[in-house]
Amino acid sequence: MLDNVLNLWKKNLGTVPGEVWDDAGVTVLILADNALTTISRRVGELQHLRTLDLGHNQLTDLPEELGNLVELTDFLYLHDNQLDSLPRTIEGLQKLKYLNISENRFSVFPDSVCSMSSLVELRATDNQLSDLPHSVAMLSQLRELHLRNNRFRTLPAAIAELSELRQIDLRGNPIDTLPDSIMEIPKLEKLDLRWVNTLRAPAWLDTLEDRGCLVYR
Questions:
Q1: How far apart are CA 94 and CA 70, in angstroms?
Q2: What does residue 52 show for φ and ψ, rounded to 5 degrees?
Q3: pTM of the complete model
Q4: Least C-beta-crowded within 10 Å: which of 58, 62, 81, 114?
Q5: Contact (Cβ atoms closer than 8 angstroms) between residue 201 and residue 177
Q6: What CATH topology corresponds to 5-129?
Q7: What is the pLDDT of residues 48-106, one digit of tens each?
């Protein structure tokens, strides 16, 4: 199926024209870099969307109707906004593979994200996060977890349940301990600990490297 792309990147919109929500057949909608402060509840009417880009705006919240986009499979870009929470309804995005909530104002990790069971890549860099919920273990398809430049001191032991995980990026966090259970992640290929000056490196990091995992420190 060919994508029906509506690309309104950097058009100085300020607000989204009403006719955008009338295009029920759109599959890729790009509204990035438009100084948007709100998104209409009508976004939930775009039932064929597979990619939605709302990055580089000034959004402080999102409508609950975002959770109606059950065919959103490819990408949801929310980075570089002013979000500190997500609507609980976002857990309805059960087919989504890529979510980017980086460069926002999250201090509490949105637990609803952990219900998005098809996620393959999650980017939550450059926020104010300090805790990852144990429910992260529900992301059984996750391959990449990017947490750079937050306030994490450790990770939950439950991270070992992410059997498909290949990459963990913890750069720039005040990590002081890491759970030994990281050793149990069978497919881990890269653990990035650069710019982490607070961690006394556990001996098992060497074991990780010996089995072929790249450990940057």
A1: 7
A2: -135, 120
A3: 0.97
A4: 58
A5: no
A6: 3.80.10
A7: 999 999 999 999 999 999 999 999 999 999 999 999 999 999 999 999 999 999 999 99
